[in-house]
């Protein structure tokens, strides 16, 4: 059981990463990564929903009639998302402000549905929870890297703190930092993700060569 | 047949369980959410009327701060709101219906206008809600104009679903600052020029150099167009109706 | 609410407000299924079908059931269940009539359910207050727009000479860059027609 769990962890984080390898969860990757804080909150939300949805679906997997399996999966997923949204709105409205526009994007995040179909509906609850959790982490860390660059180059800040401007001024550039607007808009997301995949594949190839 | 019945029952039961759980959470938190919303609206009205939190001046506000980020004292805010607001209900004459063809005020036969008063009882300005369409959804705002209707005191955006980092920046103070002192004389002259315009390279704020322009946000053209359209249409109506009212009061 | 002609909405949804290239919804399957024109067209047609049906049904459900009962906060869940049911029917249909397409689409057939474009169209329809006819035309138009976008991408990728692309960028990498360029091109269309 432990070795299987470890395999899942390694898989979801790198080898079978939901974003860079399975190419899932792209819509939200593009939408949310222009601001680092929003990415972090989105990632945490996704980890929560994926793990608990996987748990519930796995527990129910033997009694869900096959003809309604998709409807049950989306029911469970969207219920958890709306639950998170209502709870945040009521008790931490500032964080809910960052997650609000993305509620629809979490419900339709292909990663969650993908893991339900591919794993949770045919595996034990314990492993399913881990798979759900680690898929979320695999998604989150890739997005955080992309968001790091997009916010830095697009706004010149990180977590809202101006960084590029002071750095530019300290090395003598009098105008400070000019924002790269393309990084804030969607095409910036496409290009950053492409670069990430490029780098990831290059590393994969290198590891492959070293093994030989 | 048995399978179909089981499938149907299963769906009904599981749907009932999850929706029941959600309904429960919704009911439990409804009151809190409504209160949060009310407080947010009060802050917007005060901000638009240029009532900033105690001890804070405009220059101290970070360009990216939204109204909610400012250090409001919640109790003081409630008190201030209650003491500085009065409502004025004005009837909508039939001749104004043409302005309201595409507005959310269509079919109304009277509108409520808020009178914001300073501490000494003098009028700070007239405030009212506006609604327009952005890129992703509705944009709702609250605007306050000067008692002589020549310039805007301020605006705040109470509802928007625009792209975070782009269109959503209309809620940041840098954008909203352009509306302080914005000239409204264009609504009263008889030319066909748009009363409020959008520019791309504004050098000075409207406090320093009063004009009828505001600066657009890079990458958020559609959202800014929506704001401009909203102002040029709904404001026209409110200003006309207020002008008529002020004239009757003078007589 | 507005008296915008349904046909204007239909064409605007294809060009000036293309659900994929302007609003960036429906990306996952777009990137993965656009390698072959045959599979892409199968998925595209499926999306048109699902979008038209769900726009119609969700409109009826929202304005006749959710609104009168003040249950608007459940719209996310109700909409997506309607979408899931429609996709389930579609899956049964495709499995029976075209084994090849069924196998080629693989997991992306059930993933139509969570295609953000489909939920997005239903949510837009509500926010923009479209009438029933407007919603159906908007849904169908959005589907056609998505179809054209994925066909364009499949056409480009089939013609792409893979020998000139570094191996690390082949596949999803280059698809993302192409999409980025297509997206930048479509920014030029934005705002031409008022559809709300």
Brief account:
The complex is a heterotrimer of chains A (212), B (251) and C (196). Chain A has 212 residues and is mainly α.
Interface with most residues: A-C, 45 and 47 residues
Mean pLDDT of chain B: 87
The strand order across the widest sheet of chain A is: 1-2
Describe the global form of chain B.
Answer: globular
User: What structural category characterises the helix and strand content of chain A?
Assistant: mainly alpha
Query: What portion of residues of chain A is helical?
Result: over 70%
Strand order across the biggest sheet of chain B?
1-2-3-4-5
Number of strands of chain B: 7
Biggest sheet character of chain B: 5 strands, antiparallel
Structural class of chain B: alpha+beta
β content of chain A, as a range? under 5%
How many structural domains in the coordinates of chain A?
1
Low-pLDDT stretches of chain B are: none
Oligomer: heterotrimer
Largest sheet of chain A: 2 strands, antiparallel
Instruction: State which percent range the strand residues of chain B make up.
Output: 15-25%
Compute the separation of the termini of chain A in Å: 30 Å
Binned, the helix content of chain B reads 25-40%
Count helical runs of chain A: 11
What does this structure look like?
- The complex is a heterotrimer of chains A (212), B (251) and C (196).
- By secondary structure, chain A is an all-alpha fold.
- Helix content of chain A is 74%, strand content 2%.
- Chain A has a two-stranded antiparallel ribbon.
- In chain A, helix 3 runs antiparallel to helix 8, helix 4 crosses helix 5 (93-99) and helix 7 (110-118) packs antiparallel against helix 8 (125-154).
- Chain B is of the alpha+beta class and 251 residues long.
- Chain B has a domain at 85-250.
- Helices cover 37% and strands 19% of the residues of chain B.
- In chain B, helix 1 crosses helix 2 (74-84).
- The longest helix of chain C is centred in the N-terminal third of the chain and has 30 residues, at 37-66.
- The chains are: A mainly alpha (212), B alpha+beta (251), C mainly alpha (196).
């Amino acid at each position: 059981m432990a070795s299987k769990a470890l395999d899942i962890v390694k898989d979801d984080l790198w080898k079978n990463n939901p974003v860079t390898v399975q190419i899932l969860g792209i819509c939200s990757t593009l939408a949310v990564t222009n601001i680092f804080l929003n990415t972090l909150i989105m990632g945490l939300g996704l980890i929560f929903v994926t793990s608990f949805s996987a748990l519930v679906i796995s527990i129910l997997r033997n009694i869900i009639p096959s003809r309604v399996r998709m409807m049950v999966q989306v029911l469970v997923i969207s219920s958890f998302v709306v639950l998170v949204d209502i709870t945040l709105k009521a008790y931490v409205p500032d964080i809910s402000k960052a997650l609000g526009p993305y509620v629809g994007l979490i419900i339709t995040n292909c990663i969650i549905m993908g893991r339900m179909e591919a794993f949770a509906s045919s595996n034990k609850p314990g492993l399913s929870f881990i798979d759900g959790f680690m898929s979320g982490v695999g998604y989150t860390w890739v997005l955080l890297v992309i968001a790091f660059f997009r916010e830095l180059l697009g706004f010149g800040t990180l977590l809202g703190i101006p960084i590029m401007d002071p750095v530019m001024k300290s090395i003598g550039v009098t105008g400070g930092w000019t924002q790269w607007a393309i990084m804030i808009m969607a095409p910036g997301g496409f290009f950053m993700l492409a670069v990430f995949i490029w780098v990831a594949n290059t590393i994969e190839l290198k590891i492959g060569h070293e093994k030989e | 047949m048995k399978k179909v019945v089981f499938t149907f029952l299963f769906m009904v039961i599981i749907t009932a369980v999850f929706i029941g759980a959600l309904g429960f959470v919704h009911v439990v938190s409804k009151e809190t959410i409504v209160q949060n919303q009310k407080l947010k609206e009060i802050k917007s009205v005060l901000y638009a009327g240029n009532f900033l939190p105690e001890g804070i001046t405009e220059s101290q506000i970070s360009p990216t701060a939204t109204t909610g980020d400012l250090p409001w004292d919640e109790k003081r805010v409630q008190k201030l709101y209650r003491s500085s607001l009065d409502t004025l209900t004005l009837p909508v004459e039939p001749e104004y219906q043409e302005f309201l063809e595409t507005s959310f005020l269509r079919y109304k036969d009277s509108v409520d206008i808020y009178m914001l008063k300073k501490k000494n009882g003098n009028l700070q300005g007239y405030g009212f809600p506006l609604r327009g369409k952005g890129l992703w959804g509705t944009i709702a705002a609250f605007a306050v104009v000067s008692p002589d209707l020549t310039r805007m005191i301020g605006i705040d955006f109470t509802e928007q679903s625009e792209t975070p980092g782009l269109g959503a920046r209309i809620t940041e103070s840098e954008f909203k600052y352009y509306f302080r002192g914005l000239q409204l004389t264009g609504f009263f002259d008889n030319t066909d020029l748009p009363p409020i315009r959008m520019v791309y390279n504004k050098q000075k704020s409207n406090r320093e150099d009063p004009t009828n322009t505001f600066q657009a946000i890079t990458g958020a053209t559609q959202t800014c167009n929506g704001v401009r359209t909203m102002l040029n249409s709904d404001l026209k109506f409110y200003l006309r109706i207020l002008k008529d009212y002020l004239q009757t009061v003078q007589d | 609410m507005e008296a915008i002609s349904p046909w204007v909405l239909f064409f605007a949804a294809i060009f000036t407000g293309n659900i994929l290239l302007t609003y960036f919804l429906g990306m996952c399957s777009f990137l993965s299924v656009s390698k072959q024109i045959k599979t892409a067209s199968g998925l595209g047609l499926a999306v048109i079908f699902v979008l038209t049906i769900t726009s119609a049904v969700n409109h009826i459900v929202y304005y006749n059931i959710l609104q009168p009962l003040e249950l608007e906060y459940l719209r996310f869940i109700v909409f997506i269940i309607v979408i899931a049911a429609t996709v389930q029917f579609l899956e049964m249909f495709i499995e029976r009539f075209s084994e090849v397409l069924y196998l080629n689409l693989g997991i992306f057939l059930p993933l139509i359910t969570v295609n953000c474009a489909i939920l997005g169209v239903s949510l837009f329809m509500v926010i923009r207050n479209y009438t029933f006819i407007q919603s159906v035309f908007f849904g169908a138009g959005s589907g056609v727009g998505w179809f054209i976008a994925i066909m364009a991408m499949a056409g480009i990728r089939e013609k792409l000479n893979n020998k000139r692309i570094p191996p690390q960028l082949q596949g999803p990498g280059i698809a993302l860059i192409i999409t980025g360029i297509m997206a930048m091109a479509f920014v030029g269309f934005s705002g031409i027609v008022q559809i709300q």
